[in-house]
């Protein structure tokens, strides 16, 4: 029954299920990536800035420059005691080298302190403060805080605020760092979320990496947890470590600092769980090996790995629950085959415990259990369709071939029954690929069928010779029979030549030649048949009828003559002559239209001739009308006068 | 029965030859000519076939159209119908006849192919 309580329970379950799908890092620095980073930072440096990036960057990664003494001499030689930047680079770099001290003058302190004011940029303040702190010179933290707060208000960009955060890490813990700490949250809000996977500043990788460094260094210094959620941390990890080759030394330096900050701060340490090679176990290799490292691929000191659940993907049954891994030589091991899983894919949910700082410590893994397949009970038989003659079944053992060949003509079916079992456990298997291949050695024809299992997982294949003749092109002959078995979870795919099968098709259905050979030859030309002109009647008939149709005209002339129609009243006035000429021209134009012109040309000529004819005709008819009215009026006068009488 | 038909026909013919004016008889002769031409075209079509059909249609419609225009002209110039056509003089009727014929010819020649 669908009660409200049940639906609430389902909703809660759904939320829990969705929440359990936590984000895990998709990028981190593998050992080769770390080496590449160290390589970039180890390149020879030519000025103080690159020396600073190299020396300090390498020290963050736990390495050092090739020749420390040389580096120290270089710093001392390049130092310009009047420049804040120069002092900063030299002081910071010398701190990273053991037994390297940069000499200072009396004026140094004054120069550096003078740089700490509201009028210098945040970068200047940062460099001055860092230099002062590295050189062991005293500084007034509260003044710095005031200057920083004032500068943040003026320089409201990401890089400036990040630099301010970095400056705050050098100040005394007693100073009022609360206001600056709040900037972390404000800055985090400015990050762009890309697809829920990446979180980065639009200013780029370097800005994001420097932000991560500053946020965690300051949080450690002020002993306050940074206001970043787990998902945000993972997204930042993805953004910073997705790039595996860096454009400049400063970019490499920022990534090295971020990596160091994320692997050893007091609050959030992202953990990476990875497999050594493909995650596959089998009877020969029953142990699943997993590595648990931080983002620099250093193994975590105190970590315990636990399988929360291992669920078969196909059947959704839970095979393992709450099983711990054992640690051996820095690698976590679990003998998964001890749980006797069936072959297939398993969804593992593993949890890393042992440190409260760990972030993304619940990881989902897909593990494949592979096995070996064995073909058993392979029976080949030729079955008569009407089942009058008993079937002849022969058993063939893998990998041998059947002794005789099997003959099947159109009255018989060729049948194959077999079972596929797991070689180790005897459980029936249904691999993805179970094909039966017929290959005609003479013609090169190859026909492949699929063998299907029935409800009891017994494979049956039946070839109805008459029904399938189109696939074989009705070519009778000896076909070599192969059984092909394959699957992603099988370690031993099978290609087994089982037997020879002689197939006989009815010969009259066999095509003349093998179709495939002529498939790519030019086909016969198609002759285009133009539309036949319609049959015309013989010319005699047409001519007769033409004469016949024109004959009434003669009749008309005769009739008119008999009626006494004449042109005696024809007045030779110019308008009447023009009218008749124009009219004749119009009729002539009709003929020319029929033979030569198109409608537009005709209309053009018609307009010219027609208007002339019209004007002339109008004049002529008017004259005629006048004449007629003149006549009729005299007639009326005459009639009236006679009537009066 | 046949007697009355013959007597009607002979009476009609007599009236026609005496009562109708020459002008109208001229037009009637023209109409008869058009009729014959159209009938002969139709006969050809029946006997020999409709190829080319557009030509047959053009010719036949010309005959039909000319016949109709001729009839209109005859009606309009008949003095007995003067009351119905007060605003149309004989010359005007003839001019209309010519104009309509021009359009008819244009269309037919276009269609004759």
Give me the side-by-side strand order of the main sheet of chain A.
5-13-11-7-8
Q: Which structural class do the helices and strands of chain B define?
A: mainly alpha
Based on DSSP secondary structure assignment, what is the total number of beta strands of chain A? 23
User: What's the N-to-C terminus distance of chain A?
Assistant: 123 Å
Q: Identify the biggest protein-protein contact and residues per side.
A: A-B, 35 and 28 residues
Largest sheet of chain B: none
Record field, number of beta strands of chain B = 0
Transmembrane segments (chain B): 29-49, 55-73, 93-112
Membrane topology (chain B): Multi-pass membrane protein
Pfam families (chain B): DAD
GO molecular function (chain B): transferase activity
Structural summary, described in words:
The complex is a heterodimer of chains A (645) and B (113). Chain A is α+β, with helices and mostly antiparallel strands and 645 residues long. In chain A, 41% of the residues lie in helices and 21% in strands. Chain A has helices at 4-19, 31-41, 48-60, 68-78, 84-96, 106-115, 122-134, 141-154, 158-168, 178-189, 205-222, 230-241, 249-263, 515-518, 539-563, 574-595, 599-644, and strands spanning 192-194, 198-200, 269-270, 272-275, 280-281, 287-293, 304-312, 318-324, 326-328, 331-335, 344-353, 358-359, 362-369, 373-384, 392-396, 406-408, 412-422, 433-440, 446-450, 452-453, 459-464, 477-486, 494-503. In chain A, β9 (326-328) and β10 (331-335) form a beta hairpin. In chain A, α3 packs parallel to α13 (249-263) and α11 (205-222) packs parallel to α13 (249-263). Chain B has 4 helices and no strands. The interface between A and B is medium-sized, with 35 and 28 residues.
């Amino acid at each position: 029954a669908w009660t409200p309580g049940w639906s609430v329970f389902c909703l809660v379950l759904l939320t829990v299920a969705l929440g359990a799908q936590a984000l895990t890092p998709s990028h981190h620095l593998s050992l080769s990536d770390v080496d590449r980073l160290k390589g970039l930072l180890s390149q020879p440096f030519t000025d103080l800035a690159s020396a600073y990036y190299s020396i300090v960057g390498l020290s963050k990664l736990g390495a050092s420059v090739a020749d420390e003494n040389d580096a120290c001499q270089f710093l001392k030689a390049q130092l310009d005691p009047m420049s804040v930047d120069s002092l900063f680079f030299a002081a910071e770099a010398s701190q990273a080298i053991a037994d390297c001290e940069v000499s200072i003058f009396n004026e140094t302190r004054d120069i550096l302190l003078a740089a700490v004011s509201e009028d210098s940029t945040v970068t200047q303040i940062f460099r001055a403060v860092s230099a002062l702190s590295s050189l062991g010179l005293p500084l007034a933290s509260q003044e710095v805080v005031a200057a920083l707060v004032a500068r943040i208000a003026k320089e409201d960009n990401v890089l400036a605020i990040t630099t301010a955060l970095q400056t705050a890490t050098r100040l005394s813990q007693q100073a009022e760092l609360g206001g600056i700490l709040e900037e972390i949250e404000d800055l985090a809000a400015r990050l762009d979320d890309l697809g829920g996977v990446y979180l980065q500043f639009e200013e780029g990788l370097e800005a994001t990496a420097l932000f991560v460094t500053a946020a965690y260094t300051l949080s450690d210094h002020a002993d306050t947890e940074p206001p970043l959620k787990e998902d945000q941390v993972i997204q930042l990890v993805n953004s910073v470590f997705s790039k595996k080759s860096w454009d400049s030394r400063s970019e490499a330096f920022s990534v090295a600092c971020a990596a160091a900050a994320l692997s050893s701060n007091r609050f959030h340490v992202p953990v990476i769980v990875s497999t050594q090679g493909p995650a596959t176990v089998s009877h020969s290799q029953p142990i699943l090996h997993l590595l648990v490292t931080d983002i620099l691929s250093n193994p975590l000191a105190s970590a315990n790995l636990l399988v929360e659940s291992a669920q078969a993907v196909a059947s959704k049954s839970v095979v393992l629950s709450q099983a711990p891994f054992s640690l051996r030589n820095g690698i976590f091991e679990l003998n998964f085959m001890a749980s006797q899983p069936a072959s297939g894919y398993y969804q593992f949910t593993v949890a890393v415990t042992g440190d409260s700082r760990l972030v993304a410590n619940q990881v989902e893994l897909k593990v494949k259990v592979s096995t070996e397949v064995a073909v058993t009970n392979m029976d080949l038989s030729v079955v008569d369709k009407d089942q009058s003659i008993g079937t002849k079944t022969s058993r063939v053992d893998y990998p041998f071939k059947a002794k005789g060949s099997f003959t099947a003509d159109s009255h018989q079916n060729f049948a194959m029954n077999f079972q596929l079992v797991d070689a180790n456990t005897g459980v029936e298997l249904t691999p993805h690929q179970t094909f039966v291949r017929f290959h005609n050695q003479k013609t090169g024809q190859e026909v492949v069928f699929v063998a299907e299992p029935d409800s009891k997982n017994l494979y049956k294949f039946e070839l109805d010779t008459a029904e399938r003749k189109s696939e074989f092109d009705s070519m009778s002959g000896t076909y070599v029979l192969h059984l092909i078995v394959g699957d992603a979870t099988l370690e031993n795919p099978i290609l087994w030549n089982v037997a020879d099968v002689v197939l006989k098709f009815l010969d009259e259905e066999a095509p003349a030649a093998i179709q495939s050979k002529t498939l790519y030859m030019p086909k016969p030309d198609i002759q285009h048949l133009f539309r036949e002109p319609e049959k015309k009647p013989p010319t005699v008939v047409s001519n007769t009828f033409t004469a016949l149709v024109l004959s009434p005209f003669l009749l008309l002339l005769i009739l008119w003559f008999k009626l006494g129609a004449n042109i005696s009243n024809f007045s030779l006035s110019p308008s009447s002559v023009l009218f008749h000429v124009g009219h004749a021209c119009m009729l002539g134009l009709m003929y020319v239209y029929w033979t030569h012109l198109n409608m537009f040309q005709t209309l053009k000529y018609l307009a010219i001739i027609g208007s002339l004819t019209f004007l002339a005709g109008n004049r002529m008819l008017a004259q005629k009308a006048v004449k007629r009215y003149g006549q009729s009026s005299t007639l009326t006068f005459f009639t009236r006068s006679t009537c009066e009488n | 029965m046949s007697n009355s038909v013959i007597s009607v026909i002979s009476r009609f013919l007599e009236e026609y030859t005496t009562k109708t004016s020459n002008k109208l008889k001229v037009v009637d002769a023209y109409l008869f000519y058009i009729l014959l031409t159209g009938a002969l075209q139709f006969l050809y079509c029946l006997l020999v076939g409709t190829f080319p059909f557009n030509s047959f249609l053009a010719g036949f419609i010309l005959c039909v159209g000319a016949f109709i225009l001729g009839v209109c002209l005859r009606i309009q110039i008949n003095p007995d119908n003067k009351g119905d056509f007060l605003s149309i003089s004989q010359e005007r009727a003839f001019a209309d006849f010519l104009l309509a014929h021009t359009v008819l010819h244009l269309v037919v020649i276009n269609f004759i192919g």
